[in-house]
Design brief:
Layout: E1 2-10, E2 13-19, E3 24-29, H1 35-76, H2 80-84, H3 89-124, H4 130-145, E4 165-172, E5 179-184, E6 192-195, E7 205-208, H5 220-226, H6 233-242, H7 250-266, E8 269-272, E9 278-282, E10 285-288, H8 294-307, E11 316-320, H9 328-343, E12 347-352, H10 355-364, E13 376-383, E14 386-392, H11 402-415
Parallel strand pairs: 3-12, 3-13, 7-11, 11-12
Antiparallel strand pairs: 1-2, 1-4, 4-5, 5-6, 8-9, 9-10, 13-14
Length: about 425
């Protein structure tokens, strides 16, 4: 999990440090105050590391730990009672105790072997290097934020310093994965690594842009990879995840529980056909995704990523304006699903303008089911010295909330009408 994000001289921000929740992080502010910049910068650094972390898992780690996993699976289904059932009672009691103790010890031993193997392989294979991170982070920031040159991402609030440097630092629960980079205002496409991680982040990040991507999906990734398109790379990244196959087995059952409120809201389930197009299956009726309401298409994206495991347990979700194109009834469902994902170990970051969503999240967090969650709220305020960030554990810790202030003013104006 990400513990904090520090940024200096980056776009609209002079120098700020955000202390993050392992569950839910809500970013609030008026248009043009840098909410999307925050999400995209944080996503970019996590994505560069996580892409390499997944390669270790896919090609090196999985092959070696599969043997231990097979032993664990066999071990879990061993029936010790069958062994002792034929013994005399006195012998069977002592033998059963001994076997149970042996069973527990052996299980712990296998789990420790698995953990040690992961650490060993992560430390020796594909170790982070400055050369890779400098290239990877520069490309990701350029492709996600889309400046004409990287130096344009430095803050314009630093006056008279031609070599002003932007700095981005991520601190994680696992200190070995901390990342820090910087780049100058004159940089075309290069960054300098200030803090080199010792290990890669292994949990995948997911970025939801303000629009849905299911109607854009058919052929998008191959077109993006082979042609110059003026789309930010988050579209490509998310389309890649949307194309992953659905889960099977125990995790499929687990995913279905999380999918229930979403599929109820949509009135069906999301299907990826062999023709490369998405459909909403409502009983025997199959609806092409372009014919589905925009708001429901956003729910369909969420459903697909839960169904294929991208948003099931652990990992990160960055969601820009999740409430866009949703009516209040659907926003209520959205709030519940967001908190359900937090409960399952997903670290969620949302940027919102919706007072209704903020209130719904606050109401739900009073329920016993969600009281263990520890959200953080961040208010972005535009000043003459750049954007300043207020933060707190409750929304009322923020002194200025534009969406709330304007709602109150509108209510006053409404009451004053003749």
């Amino acid at each position: 999990m990400i513990k904090s994000f520090r940024l200096k001289n980056f776009t609209l921000f002079r120098e700020e440090e955000l202390h993050l929740s392992p569950n839910l992080n809500v970013i609030i502010g008026e248009n043009g105050c840098g909410k999307s910049h925050l999400l995209k910068a944080l996503y970019s650094l996590v994505a560069v590391s996580a892409d390499q972390g997944r390669k270790i898992t896919d090609h090196n780690l999985a092959e070696k730990i599969n043997i231990i996993d097979a032993k664990l699976k066999f071990f879990q289904i061993m029936e010790f009672e069958q062994i002792v059932s034929s013994l005399p009672i006195a012998d069977s009691l002592s033998t059963k105790e001994h076997l149970e103790q042996s069973k527990n010890n052996y299980g712990l031993s296998l789990k420790r072997q698995r953990e040690d193997l992961i650490k060993e392989i992560e430390g020796s294979i594909n170790k982070p290097t400055k050369a890779f991170l400098e290239k990877g982070c520069a490309e990701k920031l350029n492709n996600v934020l889309r400046p004409e040159r990287l130096g344009n991402l430095t803050s314009h609030h630093v006056i008279g310093d031609d070599d002003r440097r932007a700095k981005l630092f991520i601190s994680n629960d696992d200190e070995r994965t901390d990342i820090g980079i910087s780049f100058s205002a004159n940089s075309q496409s290069g960054v300098q690594v200030e803090s080199l991680p010792q290990s890669w982040i292994r949990e995948k990040p997911v970025f939801f842009p303000t629009r849905e991507l299911l109607t854009l999906y058919p052929g998008f990734v191959s077109t993006y990879d082979n042609h110059y398109l003026e789309f930010e790379e988050t579209y490509r990244d998310t389309c890649l995840l949307l194309g992953l196959p659905a889960l099977k087995g125990e995790r499929e059952v687990y995913a279905k529980e999380l999918l229930k409120p979403i599929e109820e809201a949509m009135g069906g389930e999301v299907i990826l056909d062999s023709n490369g197009r998405f459909y909403l299956q409502q009983g025997k009726k199959r609806i092409e995704m372009p014919l589905v309401a925009e708001g429901l298409r956003k729910f369909a994206m969420l459903a697909r990523l839960i169904a294929n495991g991208s948003l099931l347990d652990k990992g990160y979700l960055f969601w820009d304006e999740p409430e866009a194109n949703l009516n209040p009834k659907l926003i209520k469902t959205l709030a519940k699903v967001i908190l359900d994902m937090c409960k399952q170990g997903i670290q969620v970051f949302i940027a919102t303008h919706s007072l209704f969503l903020l209130r719904e999240l606050e109401i739900l967090q009073k329920d016993e089911e969600y009281r263990t969650l520890s959200p953080r709220y961040f208010g972005l305020n535009i000043t003459s010295d750049g954007v300043k960030v207020e933060q707190g554990d409750e929304i009322y810790d923020l002194s200025q909330i534009v969406v709330l202030d304007e709602s109150i003013l509108q209510a006053d104006r409404y009451l004053e009408m003749d």
